[in-house]
Amino acid sequence: MQADAPVGILGLGLIGTAFSERLVGADIPVIGFDIDPGRCAKPRENRGTAAASARELADHCRAIVIAVYSGAEAEAAFADLESSPARPAIICTTTCAPDEIIRLAKRAASAGIAFVEAPISGTSAEVRDGTATVLVAGDAAAIDAVDGLLDILCPQRTRIGKVGDASRAKLAINLILQNNRATLAEGIVLAERMGLDGQTFLATARQSAAYSRVMDTKGEKMLNRDFRPQSRLAQTLKDAELILAEAARQGLRLPVTEAQADLLRTAIAIAGPDSDSAAIIEAIRQRPDSTEDSR
Questions:
Q1: Is 229 left (phi over 0), alpha (psi -120 to 50) or beta?
Q2: Beta strands 133-138 and 120-121, pairing class
Q3: Which pLDDT tens digits describe the chain residue by residue (295 residues)?
Q4: Spatial contact of 90 and 71, defined as CB atoms under 8 Å apart
């Protein structure tokens, strides 16, 4: 297929849309597809085009970026990709369980499709501005073949070994990130209950030994109750459950992450599944034993 052929985006949620915008901004033609017909308007809004199926992406694109919700959705979509006689390279950015991504890679190898594992560490806003990090794993030749495309999609990246290793690393990274976010939420609520100004506290915390980047990405959103999504609560809980399931397979219990997953479930009940992950703070602000009035 020609080097100037379009790039396909399979999955037009927050991350897929951000990828589409980066490609269009680099003057690379984009074709997008999502099982939700309402989302298929997004590529047109960003000067791309929409496909009628995943098979159509495979027929017309030189590479396809999979950015769907879950490993199960990625595996379901793969059947359509395999049905095409064309063999575009596949870059899978979906956060999957290690066994899911390994199955996909084996299917791709059997079909003669170059496959790169590339989960993203960062929000859609960070993808959009090029500050997210992609964890890249797989065959060196397959990675090298899409190196220029990865430069555009996610300039910050690290290679991490064989297929499956990137997903393993992503789950462990997400564990730290999610628990940092929940701890920041607790710290903000405690500071405010003790009578401190939230903005002053956040600025102080950023200069302290407790600093983490989540203060920059989620602190203001927590203070302002700005829960417009850059990453959704439902997806965060999905990833937390992947983390806990993988830990269980390793004979390991993660009590902090178990508690954090319960907070996510409470936050979803309060703020809704599509609210930003910063809304975990509402699970602390509005606990049944809380004396603060709900706002």
A1: beta
A2: antiparallel
A3: 566 789 999 999 999 999 999 999 999 999 999 988 888 776 666 667 888 889 999 999 999 999 999 999 999 988 888 889 999 999 999 999 999 999 999 999 999 999 999 999 999 999 999 999 999 999 999 999 999 999 999 999 999 999 999 999 999 999 999 999 999 999 999 999 999 999 999 999 999 999 999 999 999 999 999 999 999 999 999 999 999 999 999 999 999 999 999 999 999 999 999 999 999 999 999 975 554 444 4
A4: no
Amino acid at 178: Q
In 10 A of CB 251, how many CB atoms? 6
Cα 26 from Cα 39, distance rounded (Å): 22
Largest CA distance in the chain: 65
Per DSSP bridges, beta strands 63-66 and 89-92 are: parallel
In whole angstroms, how far apart are CA 193 and each of 109, 209, 219?
56, 22, 16
The tokens for 288 are 């049944």
Tokens of 74: 């990625």
Q: Are 136 and 166 in contact (CB under 8 A)?
A: yes
∠ CA 71-72-74, nearest 5°, is 60
3-state DSSP call for residue 46? Answer: coil
Within the chain, residue ranges assigned H as helices are 14-25, 41-45, 54-60, 71-82, 98-110, 124-129, 140-145, 147-153, 165-193, 198-206, 214-224, 233-249, 255-271, 280-285
Distance CA 94, CA 91 (A): 9
Instruction: Identify whether the C-beta of residue 147 lies closer than 8 Å to the C-beta of residue 118.
Output: no
Contact 53, 59 (CB under 8 A): no
Based on the number of CB atoms within 10 Å of its own CB, is 278 exposed (0-12), middle (13-18) or buried (19 or more)?
A: buried
Nearest to 110 by CA among 120, 118, 102: 102
